[in-house]
Design brief:
- There is one protein chain.
- The protein is α+β, with helices and mostly antiparallel strands and about 180 residues long.
- The protein has one domain.
- Helices cover about 55% and strands about 10% of the residues.
- The radius of gyration is 19 Å and the shape is globular.
């Protein structure tokens, strides 16, 4: 593995992009797995079937391990002036009006790293103007970021409480979303 202290600024930026892409993939995979599990449970309930189809712990374990590794990397190798900021500190990002006040946007230059890259990774399918991203997408991102982080912390607590050794062949029932 490459020594992270000896990378150049371009590699550092790619590393941040990689971190945020990986973070999104882990969160989305975790959410999809739990949603699929809940749909299975709902179907079995509706059909009067016995509910013993517990979610495989492997997906949970893989996603939480990836998120833990990313968090550790964020702490050990922070990128950007706002690396230690929480989402609450970003509520003051200025909202600008463009095109005679028809659109409210946040300008990329007003979003400090790593939050600009995090927002970009989470908003890959969102539309935007050349002047910046729609403010409603920024506000939604901040709300969802806070919710995701709280949910991930909840899952970590559940795992630590119920499965301290977290065996790879165990199965767990995830909490309702």
């Amino acid at each position: 593995m490459r020594d992270l202290d000896a990378i150049d600024p371009l590699e550092l930026q790619r590393n941040l992009d990689y971190r945020e892409d990986l973070r999104r993939k882990a969160i989305w995979r975790l959410q999809a797995s739990i949603r699929e599990y809940q749909e299975t449970i709902n179907t079995r309930n509706a059909l009067g079937m016995n509910i013993h189809g517990l979610a495989p712990v492997e997906v949970l374990k893989t996603c939480l391990a990836a998120l833990a590794a990313i968090d550790q990397c964020d702490r050990d190798f922070p990128i950007g002036p706002a690396a230690s900021w929480g989402a609450e500190q970003l509520d003051t990002v200025p909202i600008s009006s463009v095109h005679d006040g028809r659109f409210s946007i946040v300008r990329d230059e007003d979003l400090p790293e790593p939050w600009l890259t995090r927002f970009g990774a989470a908003s890959v399918l969102s539309g935007r103007l050349k002047e910046g991203a729609y403010a409603r997408d920024w506000v939604k991102f901040l709300r969802l970021w806070k919710e995701e982080q709280a949910y991930i912390e909840h899952l970590k607590m559940v795992v630590a409480t119920k499965w301290p050794d977290f065996p790879p062949d165990a199965e767990i029932e995830p909490p309702a979303i």
